[in-house]
Amino acid sequence: MAVKITDICIACGSCIDECPVSAIVDDANNPDGQDSYYVYANKCVECVGHNDQPACASACPTDGCIVWSEVASGQPSRDNIGSDMRNGDTPVFA
After folding, report:
1. How far apart are CA 22 and CA 73, in angstroms?
2. pLDDT of residue 63
3. Residues near 35 by Cβ (< 8 Å), separated by ≥ 6?
4. Is 5 helix (H, G, I), strand (E, B) or coil?
5. Which phi-psi region, left, alpha or beta, contains residue 16 (left: φ > 0; alpha: ψ -120 to 50)?
6. To the nearest whole number, what is the mean pLDDT of the chain?
7. What is the number of structural domains in the chain?
8. Residues 19, 58 contacting (CB under 8 angstroms)
9. Residue 39 and residue 77: Cα distance in Å, rounded?
């Protein structure tokens, strides 16, 4: 997946409202059954072609909640974000 929402999410819904491709679902619709928001890897395009940066992260009021994760095969990605930063720990916005 291109971005991932961590467990510090406050479930405000801002990311869901801003996602241009409807890749984010709330905890009630999380396919893993977890009590957390979820980003579908096969839908997330890191806002390439939609925004200058991932809209979910820029809308998020919680610092470090949305992190870079591995790119789904065939999906657009921000090419300057290397695999060293796509470990699920590097915030999209610090």
Report:
1. 18
2. 92
3. 27
4. strand
5. alpha
6. 94
7. 1
8. no
9. 14
Encoding tokens for residue 81?
A: 């974000």
Contacts of 33 (CB under 8 A, 6+ apart): none
pTM of the entire structure? 0.91
What pLDDT, on a 0 to 100 scale, did the predictor assign at position 1? 75
- Whats the size of the chain, residue-wise? 94
**Mean pLDDT along residues 67-89:** 93
Instruction: Determine the structural domain holding residue 76 and report its residue range.
Output: 1-93
Q: List Cβ neighbours of 59 (8 Å cut-off, separation of 6 or more).
A: 14, 15, 17, 18
User: What pLDDT was estimated at residue 49?
Assistant: 94
Contact of 81 with 75, CB cutoff 8 Å: no
Q: What is the CATH number of the domain that holds 54?
A: 3.30.70.20
39 backbone dihedrals φ, ψ, rounded to 5°: -110, 120
Paired residues of 68 in beta bridges: 3
Residue 40 CA from chain centroid, whole number: 9
pLDDT at 38 over 90: yes
